[in-house]
Amino acid sequence: MKEVLETIPVWDALKEDTECPICSLMMRAEEDALKYYLGPAVMVPEIRVQINSKGYCNDHWQKLAAMNKAQPLSLSLDTYYEESRKIFAPSFAMIGKAGNARKALKGFDALEEAVRKREEGCLVCDYMKMRLDRYTATFAVLYDQDPEFREALSKSKGFCVHHTLDLVHAAKANISGDVLTEYLKTLSSLLEKNLERVQKDVWWMTQKYKSENRDKPWNGCEDAYKRGADKLTGRGIITP
């Protein structure tokens, strides 16, 4: 077992009784990462080198900006811009020297490729992936070693579609044999059963807006539209 186990947060997330414990864990991981890269770490030379080299995905640049930490983000942006301009400079030069549209477009092709490569990495996503690997491995190992956890998981609402697949990938690397088979069947059963449950909740929400059902009880479906989106798409999903 190479991964560091995260038994306490995994147990705590499972007890929250949400649509996906991994979603809850990953939202916290994302928050931790955003705070880290806007904290004292931004003044550490090694971290700044990483920021200048890799930066963040578009989603996390926007989330960093939304935290309104002007000084640390400005420091990061200043040197990230400097590095970006160096990378883009050859393309700008090619366009500036172009004698016709074909050559100018070739320069823009080079710029587009440079931009694509520049946006490939994300430090926040990397941090989240590290945590995701630990969490999904912990779920597998606890299922293998802890009967109480196995029972609690079987009675849970399962996971979102995306994190179910992440759990499957981790299971292959951490457990085997009959336990793996049982675990995979449990994950599938939980997903199938709870997709049906959430859809029924969403359906009842659609019916509640009909005049003849206005005075009928919500049956806990007031937030079905939110849970419906969460179950299908998840939260705290890492950008590919």
Estimate the mean pLDDT confidence.
94
The residue fraction in helices comes out at over 70%
Morphology call: globular
Strand content: under 5%
Question: Could you characterize the architecture of this molecule?
Answer:
This protein is mainly alpha-helical and 240 residues long. Helix content is 74%, strand content 0%. The chain has helices at 7-15, 21-37, 45-53, 58-66, 70-97, 101-118, 123-145, 147-154, 161-174, 177-208, 224-233. Helix 5 (70-97) runs antiparallel to helix 6 (101-118) and helix 7 packs across helix 8 (147-154). The chain is globular, with a radius of gyration of 23 Å. The mean pLDDT is 94.
Q: What can be said about this structure in brief?
A:
By secondary structure, the chain is mostly helical.
Question: Which labels suit this protein?
Answer:
240 residues, mainly alpha, 74% helix
Helices, strands, pairings?
Layout: H1 7-15, H2 21-37, H3 45-53, H4 58-66, H5 70-97, H6 101-118, H7 123-145, H8 147-154, H9 161-174, H10 177-208, H11 224-233
